[in-house]
Amino acid sequence: MHPTVVERELELTLVLSPEHGIPVPARLSYRSDDPFAVRVTFHIDSGHPVDWTFARDLLVEGVFRPCGQGDVRVWPRKVNGRGVVLMALSSPGGDALLEAPAAQVSSWLERTLRVVPPGTEGARLGIDDAVAELLAPTAADDLRLLGPCPLDEAPDGE
Question: What's the predicted TM-score (pTM) here?
């Protein structure tokens, strides 16, 4: 089965100060075969785009209330009378504060939630099937049940 991909291109604002920001083209991406994660790609028109991947739940919660800690923090805010979602990203290379239009982020998130509803992500990963396959008996297991192999026993004196 092919994964479902939900993408949206939008313009974020890199916040330099309360009065100044720089537009940053970005793409929000979600794949049903990686159901817990969202990816934000910045500078999509450049030769060196930058990807950030973090939990979809973090972005969903951040549309409504402040959340996150460490490298990614997300919270809602009103700026000039319009709703935005702020994302604070930290890495060894530096920090960035990005502002995204809340309505566009919310509508994209709703599409991802229709593709993989909350609470069903684990079933998409196939972990139960993988564990069952790892634990399934093999032909070699059947042979071991017959007893030790004479080659496994070292002769006396060795």
Answer: 0.75
